[in-house]
Amino acid sequence: MENNDLIAYLKEYYPCTDNNKLTKILNIPLWKLRRIVSRNKIYKSPEYLHKQHAKLMHVKKQKYLASIPELQPTSEQVNIIVGSILGDGGLDYSPRSKNAYYREHFSTQQREYRIWKAKKLANLGFKITKNNHLKGPSHPFFTELSRSFYPNGRKEITKDNIKLLSMPIGLACLYFDDGTLVINIRQKKKTIDLNPRITLSSHYFTQEENIILSNHLKEHFELDFNVKKVPFGHGYCLDTGKGSTIAKLLELVRPFAIEIPCMQYKVELENRYFLIEEKLTSSYKNKTIKFRDLSTTPNNYSLQDETKIITWKKEGMTDKQIAEALGRNYWGIVDKIRRLRKEGRL
Prior knowledge:
Blueprint: H1 4-13, H2 19-26, H3 30-39, H4 46-67, H5 75-86, E1 90-93, E2 100-105, H6 111-120, E3 127-128, E4 133-135, H7 140-149, H8 168-178, E5 179-187, E6 191-200, H9 207-221, E7 226-229, E8 236-240, H10 243-257, H11 269-283, E9 288-291, H12 303-314, H13 319-326, H14 330-342
Parallel strand pairs: 6-9
Antiparallel strand pairs: 1-2, 2-4, 3-4, 5-6, 6-8, 7-8
Helix pairs in contact: 5-8, 8-10, 13-14
């Protein structure tokens, strides 16, 4: 039986003292200490238990933080992620994680494009899942992005988070995700005009958010998009038929489309012109097909310019080389060469 002095001591010090410290002071094993306090119904104080719980949580947190791999995304990788968040991607939380993760569902037809993204982001832990998802790991980096892009529980564009879209590769991801290149056909008495347009399906953003995106594209990339009203989503998207903007956008994103065969149709305006011209020529033989010159440069050519174009083309120079030699827009040269061929001069 325990003596009264020991019981009195434990009643005073056991509630607020660590057990290991008590065993050393009293020179008794831990199992005996536990048996004594149990028999005499001596318990730890609520304050002590609270303090111990806080210590345990701190240790667990430190262990968790130590287990998180360090992510140091490059500016290019941040742009890929941000451009994708503005497009088809998103951020979410799994039930067992305190941190957000990146996720993006895609169709089989665009698997090649998502594989390209996964390779670019491989060192950040991005992978393609069996059910056609591009997924990144749960990590504080994505939690910070989630706080920026989902401040009120839904994806939003703000004047601050849009600044993260700063490189052509980020613009390319936004365009490949949500951009559409179309050619409008307008018939006149003697001509058929082909006018390209580009639309960004940004209708899941509000009018104010589309204005922020439009202003950013203008200020940072020199792209002039209009905020257009549409009958779905939040009612607005971005759209442009301005030649210089279309030419500039295609120029900026083309290097990345070259790496992704399934995305090349979004930049191959010349092929679309050719197919439409071929189809219309057979149906409207008496009409001239005119291509929109995607430049702000006047489309007039001197006789000397025309002679150079004809000579260089016969010598095997590409349309791009001729455009550079004359200091003209590529699509203007494409249109001029087609007209020279129709006139039988080339």
